[in-house]
Amino acid sequence: MLTALIILWPALAALLVLLVKGDGARKIAFGAALVELVLGVWAWINFVPNGSTQFLLNEPWIANAGIMFKVGIDGISLLMVLLTVFLIPLIILSTAKHTYEKPSSFYALILFMQTGLLGVFTALDAFVFYFFWEVALIPIYFIAGMWGGENRVRVTFKFFIYTVFGSLFMLAAFVYLYFQTPGTHSSEEVAFYQLVLDAGTQSWLFWFLFIAFAIKMPVFPFHTWQPDTYTTAPAAGTMLLSGIMLKMGIYGALRWLLPVVPLGVSQWGNVVLVLAIIGIIYGAIIAIRQQDMKRLVAFSSISHVGLIAAGLFTLNHHGLQGAMIQMLSHGVNVVGMFFIIDIIQSRTGTREIAALGGITQNTPFLSVTFLVLLLGTVALPLTNGFVGEFLLLMGVYQYNAWMGAVAGLTIILGAVYMLRMFQRVMFGEKNEITQGFTDLTFNEKAVLVPLVVMVFWIGLHPNTFLTISEPAVLKLLDVIKR
Amino acid sequence: MTSIILLSIFGILNLFVGFMKSKKALMPVVLLFLAVSLGATMFDWNQPQSYFSNMLSTDNFSVGFTAVMVLSTLFILPFSRSYVVAENSNLAEYYSLLLFSLVGGIMMVSYENLLILFVGIEIMSISMYIIAGSDKRNILSNEASMKYFLMGSFFTGIILFGIALLYGATGAFYLTDIAAAATNIDPATAPLLLMGLLLVLVGITFKIGAAPFHFWTPDVYEGTPTVFTSYMSTVVKTAGIAAFYKLMSAAFGGVYDQWFPTLVAITVLTLLIGNIGAVAQNSMKRMLAYSSISHAGYLMIALTSFNDRSENAILFYSLAYAVATIAAFGVLKYVSDERGSDEYSAFNGLGKTNPLLAFVMTVAMLSLAGIPLTGGFFGKVFLFSAALEQDMVWLIIVAVLMSAVGIYYYFRVIIAMYMRDAEGERIAVDPLATFTLISLVVLTVLMGVVPGLFNNLL
Lengths: 482, 458
Description:
Chain A is mainly alpha-helical.
């Protein structure tokens, strides 16, 4: 029941928010998101990390076709649920300084999207998963399309077509798999895990499923929608996309690709690793050349996600656990980065690196939080990025030493573009744009302080989170290597 | 059967209501008639019966499709209020024609004898030829009526040819007799049978607007007054596809291998032409015409795969498609009446001026595009399931690619409504139409969230 409550509460709250006019919408949405956070933490407290799926809800959905509305939380799901319920209130709070046209629709869409995201992370039936997968897409399309910047119509449309195109293939694969299950057919996760298909079938099924997840992450060369969409979407939309939504792709691959078509993965895993590593280097090199801070972080995100994807397909313990912890870290860091960029943009009216400078001089608080998040992103020891990237690189190294070496460049290149940005934006002489730059307001602190706390929490004591997912990951590895 | 009798009587009664010159009373009366017929139809559920020496029969199949058609008509009529107010419109006659055409449609889903099929098609079509021209001062409406009539009567002739050949080959009009004769046919008369089948198939393909006999669709849809276009693209299509399925399953199930290649070719062609044709349109109404072609293609996937999932998939999809299409045409009618154009640009900024209309249109488009939370999504899932049970993976690949194309044109109107600046004023919508639109949205979402209610009824 708790899972159902966690999924449904944001959608119910969204309906409520729709009825509110004006500024009240944000406050109610924030309140609802806090309630959701409490529900998430409640699940965490009652969760026993033993690899089993807990808080199970299994009700007939399309009874005569054997399709169940089956949702539940295991260690892998729980981390994603926690990430979602932690970030959404911060994202809502981060919009405080903006006034949007039709605020009630804006915040209702965010909450509605949360329902979609949480449904994806807890679904244990392929059709339920697909259902929520698309439910999460529709709100973000409207958020980016209605409140975005220049070229929003064209850019968000490309994003939408791209992702739906991928997911239709996933749907076709799910329907195919459904028919391979014995008896009256079932689309449950466990039924898919028990399928024994020949290598040829798994080979094409792999691509049908992989395309959907690869577009969502995005993995090179399926990334072309990403930089434009991140740049164009409103700050809150970008945070949703990069902080949580891209994890849908990684999570989907983890639960619905690797264990379902293991033979397909062993045929094509190499190719994916090569693509992922190309993405790491490609994203980083392009990020170095960017002038727009938002675009820079967008490309850096391609680079970081490439490493997570590579870790997934190594199919070893370090790789998968690294992916889990790095999903959390990346979510925390990237949301923080985009928020700081949003702060800078709303104070100065620009995101151009060249136009800024000298911001540190009157903003101790901003400088420190920015630096912490930035160091987390470049994986400095004691920060969250280090734990994840270290495990991931270890995983890739175990898989293939050369690949590990190339992937390791991400840390060096990451430091290059991030520190270069920090230096040009924050240090140096003040100019007329940054002259009157004021330090963080209370609201902004309220967003950034929890993020900074998380950077250190994951960095100093990653076991809090690693132990949650560990049994589930081991169990998953058993299924993959069956 | 009860509904055939009732609707025929109601059609005539309605003409008398028309004589009384009280136009305002017409719509409530017709809605009442339809509601009564719908109720009467439902009484036949699980009560199979046959009539007129087995030429007609009611079973769950016919009741299901009859219900979809009557319900669709019930949803369509509230949008015709502006015709009530208009001068010179012979509204009573139009409503009566709709009721008669519905009678033809019901005959098409409950026939057991090819003659009844033919009579049903004729009753339905002749009413539609007149209705297409009901906006008689409009040149486009005249064109629509003329085109529809000429082409339609030509294809009716082809169906009749086919029936004659089938009679020559099998000596029977009854579906069961044809089925018996077709399975062990003398090789000498086999070409006659197949020729007859092909001709009937061509004729019905025309009626449901599938390629390559779809050319009339965009022009006729464009010229016909919007409310009646909505009737054409839902009720007529539902009757056609159900009749098609019944013919194939009851009479020619035994010779599946013979007609399978033809049907696959038609299906793929329809999907391609419908979807790609729709991309090129700037007029919302013509887009919906092409979209109706493409949905005929999706429905034909279930026909082509022809197994125990097909009829349920067709019923579910027909309902989901009809509900979404009626909502889309309903909104289109108000927008084009008010802003004088049915191009996409007429919808600019509708999200600001009329949030409700825009929301209804969005749900309708999402459903037609097959996005979850709407009935259209599960409609597609069930259709694809039917095809994948036969392992027709490549057909699904075509359908999936075409669905992605579909998103492109369905979203153009959503973009216009929400992401472009408003032009024009708020559009006034009468309460009955508002209520209907909301019901359509509720039904669409209901089908998308608890599809179990509507699935596997037959």
